[in-house]
Every structure is written in structure tokens, then in C-alpha cells.
């Protein structure tokens, strides 16, 4: 009986490792697709952290941070070197998302609270990087709003911060909404006990 139990536990661990490996690859893919969709949808947001948040929520803060890191490196090499500057922001998003939902139930209330908290943190860090390293340039859709504010007489630093917070908050709300839908679909197909999420 003990041998059979050990075999089952070993099989479960192997299954979980393979599952996590595929989910990490899927999460990075979701981030890349999100980046490609932004100019098509023409919205003032990023959508480069949907997979990072998904990984953090399902697999914990360290895997969330890993997905954020790998996404920035891949995007930096293949799409725009500017993503290298925001690697730390991506790591923060994955880690904070994973930590919050390791401690609190994943529901609408915590999603809104997490969106606000992560938006403030990423806006402060991201806006500082954007202002110091790139002169306030963050991305095509975001830059349009910054430019409008500057033309209205707002100084560059303030324009970058206003735009950054607005864009980050919209981005995190959209990202968490997508993640919520994905997890609802997963809940119908899979055993959520394989993940670290506190669900329902």
C-alpha cells in the first residue's frame, strides 16, 4: 500500500512538472500575442503581462517572476530592445501577482484591489525608467496620450506619470479580466488542486 502511494505521489509530481513547463511556455506565448494585439486594437495599454499574471496566480510568485523575466528578454531580442529596460517591472508583476493570490482568494474583489496595487507599483517604477532611460517614451499607443498632455502644457515628467498610471491601471484590469476567464475555463477542465491558486 505504501509503495503504491509513493508511486502515485511520484507520478503526480512528474505530471505537475510537465504541466508547469507547458504552462510557462503558454504564458510567455500569451504575453507575446498580447503585445502584437495592442497596435491592432489601437488601445492605450500594453497587454504584455497577461501570461505573467496567469503564471503567478497559478504557479506562485517565483514562476510568475520567471515568466516576466523571460518575456522581457524574448521581446527585447525579437520585437523591441526597449523591453529590456522594463524587465524589472515584468518581474515585479509576476512576483506580486503570485504573492497576493497565494495569500488571498482569487475573486472579483481581490482582482480589483490587486489591479490598483500593482498599477501603482508598476507605474512608479515603469514611469521612472521611461523618463530616465527613454525620455518618457514607452510605446506607440501610450506615447500618443503623453504627447497630447505635453501639447496641453503639462510638463514631460507629469505627463509621463499621468499616462503611465492610466495605462497601467487599464492594462492590469484587462489582464486580470482575461486571466479570470482563462481560470474559469480551466476550472471546468482540470483539477485546480494542481495549482497554488486559492480559488472559490
Question: How would you describe what is shown here?
Answer:
The structure is a single chain. The protein has seven helices and no strands. The protein has helices at 2-41, 50-59, 61-78, 87-103, 108-134, 140-151, 156-189. The longest helix has 40 residues, at 2-41. 38% of the residues are buried. The model has no long low-confidence stretch (mean pLDDT 86). GO terms for molecular function: transmembrane transporter activity.
Search tags:
0% strand; mainly alpha; 7 helices; transmembrane; 200 residues; ECF_trnsprt_substrate-spec; elongated
Multimerization status? single chain
Q: Any idea what the shape is?
A: elongated
Beta fraction: under 5%
Task: Report mean pLDDT, rounded to a whole number.
Answer: 86
Could you spell the SSE succession in H and E letters? HHHHHHH
* Main sheet properties: none
**Helix percent band:** over 70%
Structural class determined from secondary elements: mainly alpha
Q: Report the uncertain regions.
A: none
Number of helices: 7
Q: What is the straight-line distance between the termini?
A: 33 Å
Radius of gyration (Å): 18 Å
Would you report the number of β strands? 0
How are the SSEs ordered, and which strands pair?
Elements: H1 2-41, H2 50-59, H3 61-78, H4 87-103, H5 108-134, H6 140-151, H7 156-189
Quick gist of this model?
The protein has seven helices and no strands.
